[in-house]
Structure formats: structure tokens, C-alpha cells
Amino acid sequence: MLTIAVSKGRIYDDALPLLAEAGIVPIDDPKTSRKLILRTTKDDVQLVIIRATDVPTFVEYGAADMGIAGKDVLLEHGAESLYEPLDLGIAKCRLMTATPVNAPEITGRIRVATKYVKTAQRYFADIGVQAEIIKLYGAMELAPLVGLADCIVDVVDTGNTLKANGLEPKELIAHISSRLVVNKASMKMKHQIIQALLDNFEKTLTTREKEV
After folding, report:
1. Residue 179 in contact with residue 69, Cβ under 8 Å?
2. Could you tell me where the DSSP H helices lie in 102-159?
3. How many C-beta neighbours within 10 Å does residue 192 have?
4. Which of 120, 129, 152, 171 is buried most deeply by CB count within 10 Å?
């Protein structure tokens, strides 16, 4: 049995056509089913539905052979122990800093609110800025408005949420898209089925690029 970890939401929805091209169609719908392990039209492939931040952990420790995760999650997790053979080019966005509109330039030590603690620490260290990182799990846009932080680090898609809360994107930290990751032991032990899937995904992505 090959187990693929994926999270609900945008990544799952965007990954479904890619999986379908490889003949993997979930029999159960995670939107209506409470099941966390979904059977598929391939008897030897199952999907596990977990939190996005848990995907690299499941794959690293072999609870899943493969996973689909955003590059933001992989940067934060530290994915050196995983193979990352394919950029699937789905669920694209940007990881950026953001501040209140027309906020004065910050000098000296700053306070940064984010759920991407390790990534933010690396970024500000690389540009030589002293930063106190405050970990939040949500409502990031609120932090500068109530004086909790000077700026935030978060993923930005359209920027509408920032704009609605009086913030604007500033510095680009990384372009984000979903990546396919593979457990190193699984790559050896289940090489044939994994390689066949990789080839199928790559073929589909190449076809999409040509159509664009």
C-alpha cells in the first residue's frame, strides 16, 4: 500500500486533477466524510487527510510514503530529510512581510508576528535586522493594529485580506507553491510505484506548461 499525505482545502482541491491524471481518485469525499484515511480507485494507494503543517512530519517518519505540501510549510519544517522531486506548481502564493499602510520605516529592533517562526528568524538574520518573533496561529493581520507587533510574516495570495485590514505587503521572502515530497526509505523500498507516479505527474505538468 502506498500512502499519500495531503491537507484539506486549496492544496487538496488543486491536487485532485493531478492525482486523477495518475488514476488516483478518492472514493470518499473529505468534505462530507469524517474519515481521515481515504480509499482511492487504485487498490494499492490511499490518501491520508491531515493538517498542512503535519504533512512533512508524516512523510519524514514514514507514516506516509509521499506528501503534497506548500513550500512555506517545508521551509518552516526543515525538509532536508525528505526528497522533494517535483514542484507541482499549484496553490501558488508568496511569503511576505507586511506592515500598516504608510507606517514609518522601522529602525533598530522590531517585533514580528508570524506562525513561520524559524523562517522569519532566518530571513531577518540574513538581512541583519534584530527581530523579536512572536508566534501566532491566526488573525495575523490584527497584531500590528493592536500594537502587538511592528510587522507580520505571512502568505499572501491576492492581498485583499491585508488591504481590508489596513496593511500592505512589503518584502518578498519566498515564492510559494505546493511540492511533492517523498520519504527516503519508501523511495528505495517502493521505487517502482513511486517512480511511475513521479513520471505521470511530470508528464501532466509538462503538458500543462505547453498548453499555457
Report:
1. yes
2. 117-126, 142-145
3. 8
4. 152
Q: pTM of the prediction?
A: 0.91
* Res 212 pLDDT > 80: no
Q: How far is CA 156 from CA 59, 159, 163, 201, 205, in A?
A: 26, 6, 11, 26, 24
> What are residue 71's DSSP bridge partners?
none
Query: What's the alpha-carbon Rg for the chain, to the nearest Å?
Result: 19
In angstroms, rounded to a whole number, what is the distance separating the alpha carbons of residues 149 and 134? 8
Pairing of strands 2-6, 66-70: parallel
Residue-range domains of the chain with CATH: 2-91+177-211 (3.40.190.10), 93-175 (3.40.190.10)
Strand partners, 153: 97, 114
C-alpha separations of 46 from 43, 66, 108, 200 in Å: 8, 11, 51, 17
Tens digit of each residue's pLDDT (9 = 90 or more) over 131-187? 999 999 988 999 999 999 999 999 999 999 999 999 999 999 999 999 999 999 999
- Rounded to an integer, what is the distance from CA 83 to the centroid of its chain? 15
Place of cell 508568496: 94
Mean pLDDT (whole number) for 51-75: 96
In the numeric block, the cell 502564493 is attached to: 93
